[in-house]
Every structure is written in C-alpha cells, then in structure tokens.
Queue: 2 jobs
Job 1
Amino acid sequence: MPPRRDGCLRTSCFIRRSVWAGWYQAMSGGRTGTGEDGRARRDAVDAAAPAQPIEAGEVVTTGELVAGIHHGAIRRLVVLSTWSDQQHIGGVEIVRRLTASGLTSVLIDLTREDRVAAAMGLRPDCEGFAALAEGLSSLTDVIHRDHFTRAHVVPSAGYDVRFADGAKLADLRLFLAAFAEAYECTVTEYDRDAIDRLPIILDEETALIIAGPPGVDARSGDLVNALRAIGVEDPLFMESSRLATGPAR
C-alpha cells in the first residue's frame, strides 16, 4: 500500500479559508461572483427568495431551497435521493444551483457508486473520497470541477460508509468540517443503505433533504419512518421535475 501523504494527516484537515482562497479562484477560472455576472446572480436569487428561511418539513423546489439558504443560516446539506430510476441525483442539481447563485459550493459523494462522477463528467479513475479516507490523497487531490458548471465535487470512488469503524467515522466528521471551512455551502449525497450511520454527520448547522419527483413527501413514508427510528425528525423535501441529472440546464 502506498505511504500516507503528509497532507492527509488528521491535523491537516482544519485548513483556514484564506489558504484555500487562491486555490479556489484558480479552480473556478478566476470568477468570484463580482461584477455584472455576480450582480445578476444575486438579483435573480433575491427576486425569487422567500420572505423568511425555509423550515424543516416543508416541500420546496430546488430554486426555493437555494433562495432559502441565502436567507438562512444553514450551510451544510445532506441529501437522500429517492428516484427509482437512479438517473436523478438531488445533490448534483442542488450544488449546481447553489454555485450559479454565487455561493462557493462542493458536492461530496458518499454513495459508493459512480453515478455522481458520471453525471458531472469526471473520469472513472479520478481520485475520490475513498482515497482521502485511506490517507492516500489530500483534500485538494480529491476535489474536481464539474465538467458542465463551476461547481466542485468530491466523487465517492468506492467509499463505503457502511463498514467504517469508529476511527474512520471520526475522520469522516473531520473531513466534512474541513470542506465546510473551505466553502460557503457543502452538499453531501448520502447512501440510503447506511441510514443507521446518518446521525454521525448531522448537527444543528446541517439540513437533511429528501429529494425526489413531485409528491416526494407522500412517496417517502418508509424512508421517513426509518429516519424517525434513529431519532431524525422533520427532513426537508425537495421536488424536482427534471427528466434526468446530466449537463446543467
């Protein structure tokens, strides 16, 4: 097994936002949401924004969710996607909309699969969260840019939270905290088969989103019951009528 890189030690997870600023600007093509382009994005969000932040248990569209984030204090989102055809990925749609609204955002894929990477145009062999968790890659090594937008993504690359032991779960919390320090918003696409581990990454600054087609709140009774069984109440429901997740539209 290759040796651990120094940049992956736990103590290196807490990177100051100022250290990331130049790197992020370079990754984003030097655009920081200023000037006419930035004003246009902010104006669009403000025009559609609700009068107050959205509340747990509500059913919202992606646009309403993004507008509510601009008016509230939540900056971490955990997404459970419920489409049966597996061609829709709520986290991809959300992170693209957040980025387009002017917020620096990253999608972290914890689903074990490669659907997020494929939807965002990444190579199948790119480094991802699995290598980060094993100490084989640094934080900056596993962050990639969406092929279709300026959003950032950390692909799963086979990471499986179901079998993470106590030390690995502690590392997971540290890594997610590090990403939250570097970005204005983090979106975590979570594995629905690892619901029992979900409370480990939830806190008062994190919103849980159940994403699905119109009527997702009525269709998700079993999932809601499973969440209640582990003490997770009142998730937010996000409806999307898009045909599939792919290039940003």
Job 2
Amino acid sequence: MKKIIFLLLLSLTMVTTVAAQEAAFTSAVARYRTAKTASAKVEMVKHNKAMTKSTSSTGTLSMKDPDKVAIVCNGGKDQLVMNGNTFTMVMGGHKRVASAKTASQFAAFKAVLLSVLNCGKTDISKVQGVKVTTGGGNVIITMTPTAQKHLMFTSFVLTIDRKTGALETLTLNSKRGYTKYTFSGFRFGAAVNDKVFLP
C-alpha cells in the first residue's frame, strides 16, 4: 500500500514538474505573439573531438513567422536553414538537404522552432524526444532523436531567455563533436530579407 501511494505521489510530482516546465517555455516565447520577425548576431564555434583547436566565425540569425529560420555564418559557407519542412545545412560550402517529414532528427527540431515562432501553440510536451528544463534564468529545450543510427546529430539543445524571449544559444551535438551558436543583439520585429531562407 505504501509503495502504491509513493508511486502515485511520484507520478503527480512528475506531471506537475512537466506542466511547470511547459508553462515556463510558453511564457518565454510569449513575445513572439506580436513579433513576426526577429534577428540577431551569431558567433559559431565548431569543435571536433579529433582536433585540438575549435574554429569560430560570425554571422546572423533571421527568423520569420510561421516557419522560417536561417543561421548564416562564415560568409555563407556555413548555414542552417529551416524553410517549412525543408532543412538545409551548408558546411564548408557543401550543401545537404533533409526533410522534417522523413528525418526524425529534424522532426522534433522543427516542432520546437515552430512552437517558438507561434508562441507556444505547438505543444512540444507531446513531441517524442523533447525535454524542457529551466536554469540560470533560461528555458532549456533538449531534442534527442529516438533513432541514433546514421544521424548527423545526436541531440540539439536550445536555450531561451525566460524574461526577454531571446534565443541565447543553440548547440548541435554529434558523435564527432559539436557546433554551438551564441546569439547577441537579439531584435524582435527586425527587417528580414527572404533570400536568406533560400540557401
């Protein structure tokens, strides 16, 4: 009997925690309700476990409601672009294209980015592989694909400032290392050129 009560209390605690984390996320992205675009400066750091040094470059972040996000660095030689269901990655000038409809690693990523842009209307608590936590004044969203074979990335981690709604960092982890984008000078309602979403 005591074990049953303990399990019930544990379940209630977990449900309450999940609800609180989801509420923190929804609150953090509320600013996007009125702002249909956003932009920021970007510092990109690439770390390869096989190399002793990391490489870095700068660029820009552009976001546009309802489903467009572009991170362009290193004079366009490195890009991460979401345009609807299509994800385009340009790494060192080499382009790779994936669809959120067929690539599990990008399905959760798209759901989270859509939820940011539509101020939490997309319920990411129901998206498999997505976990929301809080810490250091930020909301942290970790996306881990369920299938780990033949994936470009093992996880994505997005941090959002709880008060301002600005994106703070985005980290793409892989078996070889990671790519981390750090955003600064975040501006809501900024002018965005649609050409950046067509790499």
